[in-house]
């Protein structure tokens, strides 16, 4: 399973209103022992990369048992991260220093969903 966006994914992502704010829904399923590696990544994200690129964590929490979902759709953790624009997110992902720490995220995860969201009422 993929846990990191590809170049093609980012190109499609930027094709839709690149300067509009975006909130990223992150659904995370940790590999065995992966939570510690993810926490290391998350600390770097909060302390360095989100401030550098104008992002902020709106919510971070542990997932509970799914109330309405197909088998296997429960997640270990959920995050909502706001970026001032899709371009800002893409710049962060391309940041050479960020690319050095993203290995902790990749190693930590068994599965992930990274879903950009757009507020209702915005076309």
Automatic annotation (TrEMBL):
<feature type="domain" description="DUF1330">
    <location>
        <begin position="35"/>
        <end position="112"/>
    </location>
</feature>
<dbReference type="InterPro" id="IPR011008">
    <property type="entry name" value="Dimeric_a/b-barrel"/>
</dbReference>
<dbReference type="Pfam" id="PF07045">
    <property type="entry name" value="DUF1330"/>
</dbReference>
<protein>
    <recommendedName>
        <fullName>DUF1330 domain-containing protein</fullName>
    </recommendedName>
</protein>
<dbReference type="InterPro" id="IPR010753">
    <property type="entry name" value="DUF1330"/>
</dbReference>
